[in-house]
From TrEMBL, chain A:
Designated name of the protein: Nitrite/sulfite reductase
Record domain Nitrite/sulphite reductase 4Fe-4S: where: 119-271, 411-547
Domain Nitrite/Sulfite reductase ferredoxin-like: start-end pairs: 53-111, 345-397
GO molecular function terms listed in the Swiss-Prot or TrEMBL record: 4 iron, 4 sulfur cluster binding; heme binding; metal ion binding; oxidoreductase activity
InterPro entries: NIR_SIR_4Fe-4S, NiRdtase/SiRdtase_haem-b_fer, Nit/Sulf_reduc_fer-like_dom_sf, NO2/SO3_Rdtase_4Fe4S_dom, NO2/SO3_Rdtase_4Fe4S_sf
Signal peptide range: none
UniProt entry keywords in alphabetical sequence: 4Fe-4S, Heme, Iron, Iron-sulfur, Metal-binding, Oxidoreductase
Signal listed as a keyword: no
TrEMBL record, chain B:
Protein's name according to its UniProt entry: DUF934 domain-containing protein
Superkingdom of the source species: Bacteria
Pfam hit, one: DUF934
Length: 552, 170
């Protein structure tokens, strides 16, 4: 994992001091609310319904055990002993006191963490595959490039005040697990026919009010040109993106307005001036960053050791957990374990200080001291020996981490919703819980199989509802909370925006609507067909007919 | 006369800025004052501006195309960029373009919603003079230069990005 040198430390410390000074001037009345707002947002600080909310960056979802312990400490010292993992691999504290935020930032700086650009109209945390570096289907490890992009985007003097937020995601595996097609820029690390490494560059994807799947603006960008090309894209966006209407200010609107061809040509023209300039990456530069992401000393193991296989055979509950909550590892005899934060009764993505400490201990004891945050809002132990899985399962159960629902209907991606967020039209947490309760029967849940269920409390779409196989959007109707259901969305290599099935539902009726949709699926599915495949094959009509049928 | 920051010092400055009034009309400019005129006014009648005894400089609005000024840059005593709101970051790109693409070497001044918290970035992209917004302290604004002692990117002030200096120094 990347380690700070003296310069990285200094930059973060100086940012903490800058923010401390800004906060003090605001509290002393020397900065107006309008002046302070963009400055605090750029440091991850929102003012929410009950208190400020501080979003801390977890660069591309990588976390060391000692960092997670620090987050647990902050949760206890400055908050209500829990925090919330976000859909962009960050972590949020919901109850800090404004005056103490600089102290939290100083504590974070001690462990090489910060809140820089976790909000505001600037380049946000770069995200990637939560299984980067360990995934069995990985083609190229994206992490060195993620770190290079992180540094390039951090406090970039030219791009501090963009028209709107800007999100970059990188993927290096066969299956895109980083939602690259719904980011402002999506990068796929690829090899060309000559065997050179480079990037496929996708621009203009995004969710929010206007969900759009991004389009390829460059099919192969050699690695060395990464930063000059990003500078060119950002400069075109900074200069020509709309600033008159915040709902039309994302780069996707600019790309659509110009057409992707004209946009790509404009970027190309800008890039010709920057190409081969000082920001060109040399092999030694890439090698320097890649050196932080070399494999740990994995043991030579064989897959499926007898103690593991026998437990699988003896205990169906363990087998079920292994099936859903572990992923194949590139090294035989290892697995990545997904610790589920989707237990019924707990808001999706919420994690207690006690759970953080426990997971940090397991990362040290069973792995190499590293963890990952997935954009699906779960925590991952990337390197666990199969022979240790039984013990890890029992420990995970003891901490409420072992709900065997990863990738199933109750593994709901969910924003904090109206309980916390002042933007939300509707609460998401109680509705997510009602759905989880309705589908609590594990046999039923397993039979339904892989289903991405995504839930947003408003059209800002933090819960990525558009790309859920089944999505829920909270809407406001004359001051009441209603819920719109979409079907057919998907993330990954075949990203699709879901379609609304019809009029929205009252809160109490959402679980029943879900049940009817699932009944149609079970009746209609062909052998081995997943929910999304059935939806694609039969279309929305059979679902609409059932859900909106008049009672007889 | 007003105080501005230029090259790291607080100095007295006599430039006046020509801005349109609420009806979009431009007030008359006395022939002997040094004036910074909008790009549109400059392009409309360069010869008249140059015929005055006072000096003439040009300011760009965020949406202006700096290329339109490229041929005149070598002769201009000053170029300014207006920041109508500090959250409008287009001027940062204009600064870099003027310096790096069009090789402008003279005074580059930031106008408008400019104050201490923005100085560091503005300096990095090429501005060397700052008219601090009314009501904001100018004496403490000087500290804005030093907010950060290092940065990751290639900038006008330090074209070699940190990653290159890092690997060279290993």
């Amino acid at each position: 994992m990347y380690r700070y040198d003296e310069v990285d430390h200094r930059i973060v410390r100086e940012r903490v001091e800058q923010f401390r000074d800004q906060t003090q001037r605001f509290l002393a009345g020397q900065l107006s609310e309008d002046e302070f707002r963009p400055l605090r947002l750029m440091n991850g600080l929102y003012v929410q319904r009950h208190a400020p909310m501080l979003r801390v960056a977890i660069p591309y979802g990588h976390l060391a055990s000692h960092q997670l312990r620090k987050l647990a400490h902050i949760a206890r010292q400055y908050d209500k002993s829990y925090a919330h993992l976000t859909t962009r691999q960050n972590i949020q504290f919901n109850w800090p006191e404004l005056a103490r935020v600089p102290d939290i930032l100083a504590e974070l700086a001690e462990v090489e963490m910060h809140a820089i650009q976790t909000s505001g109209n600037c380049v946000r945390n770069t995200t990637t595959d939560a299984f980067a570096g360990v995934a069995q289907d990985e083609l190229l490890d994206p992490r060195a490039y993620c770190e290079i992009i992180r540094q390039w985007s951090t406090l970039h003097p030219e791009f501090a005040f963009l028209p709107r937020k800007f999100k970059i995601a990188v993927s290096g595996s066969v299956e895109d697990r980083a939602a690259t097609q719904v980011h402002d820029i999506g990068l796929h690390v690829v090899r060309n026919e000559a065997g050179e490494v480079g990037f496929k560059v996708i621009v203009g994807g995004g969710l929010g009010r206007t969900p759009i799947v991004g389009e390829v603006v460059k099919s192969f960008l050699p690695t060395r040109h990464l930063l000059t090309y990003l500078d060119a894209v950002l400069r075109v966006y900074n200069r020509f993106g709309r600033r008159d209407n915040k709902y039309k200010a994302r780069i996707k609107i600019l790309v659509k307005a110009m057409t992707v061809e004209a946009f790509a040509a404009k970027v190309e023209d800008e890039w010709l001036h920057l190409k081969d300039g000082p920001s060109t990456l040399r092999d030694v530069d890439v090698a320097h960053y890649a050196s932080f992401f070399i494999d740990p000393d994995y043991e030579q193991l064989s897959a499926n050791p007898p103690e593991f296989s026998s437990k699988l055979a003896e205990e169906p509950a363990f087998a079920r957990w292994v099936e859903r909550n572990t992923r194949l590892h590139k090294r035989a005899g290892y697995r990545s374990v997904v610790l589920s934060l989707k237990k019924t009764g707990v808001p999706p993505g919420d994690i207690s200080a006690e759970q953080m400490d426990a997971a940090a201990d397991w990362a040290d004891r069973f792995g190499y001291g590293e963890l990952r945050v997935a954009h699906e809002q779960n925590l991952i132990l990337p390197d666990v020996r199969e022979s240790d899985l039984y013990e890890v399962w029992q420990l995970a159960k003891s901490q409420g981490f072992a709900t065997p629902n990863i990738g199933l209907l109750t593994d709901i991606i969910c924003c904090p919703g109206g309980d916390f967020c002042s933007l939300a039209n509707a609460r998401s947490i109680p509705v997510a819980e009602a759905i989880q309760t309705r589908f609590e029967d594990l046999d039923y849940l397993f039979d339904l199989g892989d289903i991405d269920c995504n839930f947003s409390g408003c059209m800002n779409a933090c819960g990525h509802h558009h790309i859920g196989n089944i999505g829920i959007l909270g809407v406001d109707k004359n001051g009441e909370e209603w819920y719109q259901i979409t079907l057919g969305g998907s993330q990954g290599s075949h990203t699709t925006i879901g379609k609304v099935i019809g009029p929205s539902f009252a809160q109490a009726d959402v679980p029943l609507a879900f049940e009817k949709i699932m009944t149609v699926y079970l009746e209609q599915r062909a052998a081995g067909e997943r929910f999304i495949e059935t939806v694609r094959r039969i279309g929305l009509d059979p679902f609409k007919e059932r859900v909106y049928a008049k009672h007889h | 006369m007003q105080s501005i920051i230029k090259d790291g010092q607080i100095v007295q400055d006599g430039w006046q800025i020509l801005r349109a009034d609420a009806e979009g009309q431009y007030p008359a400019v006395a022939p002997d004052v040094d004036v910074i005129v909008p790009l549109s006014q400059w392009l409309a009648d360069k010869a008249s501006w140059l015929a005055r005894s006072g000096k003439t400089a040009v300011w760009l609005a965020p949406a202006d195309d700096p290329q339109l000024l490229a041929a005149d840059l070598a002769a201009l005593p000053l170029v300014a960029v207006d920041f109508p709101a500090f959250t409008d970051g287009r001027g940062y790109s204009l600064g870099r373009l003027l310096r790096e693409r069009y090789s402008y070497a003279g005074e580059l001044r930031a106008l408008g919603d400019v104050w201490v918290d923005l100085l560091h970035y503005l300096w990095q992209v090429g501005f060397n003079a700052f008219e601090i917004k009314d009501g904001k302290a100018i004496d403490t604004a000087l500290s804005g230069y030093d907010t950060f002692t290092e940065r990751y990117q290639s900038t006008h002030r330090e074209p070699v990005p940190l990653f290159r200096r890092r690997v060279t120094s290993l």
